[in-house]
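Hi C.,

You asked whether I'd gotten around to modeling the 104-residue construct. I have! Everything is below, sequence then structure, no commentary in between.
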Amino acid sequence: MGTEKLAAEHTLVLPTDTTVNNAILKGDGRLALRLLERLGIADPPEPGFTEVEDLETEQTLERQRQQLAKRKEAERIFWENSMTLPEVPSAAEDTDFGARGAGG
């Protein structure tokens, strides 16, 4: 933040702070609240990121989460396919084995 901007904010906030404090001291909290609301100071914060670096960090983390989820899914499929047992012929299909085994 530049020095000029800080000075301008200080110039605007200091009288407001004094006005709000004076209103509160006089017992007029409504006036203080209305003044803060009109200045946007009493507004609820907007959700989401306000700093570019925070947003970039969150986007990077989200990409990494998605890549990790894809790798986990690929690994799950690999192991699922690797653990599949080969098909074993049933006794009805393997009638030649019994004949070969007995004869020779």
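If it helps when you're writing up: Residues 52-82 form the longest helix (31 residues).

Thanks,
B.
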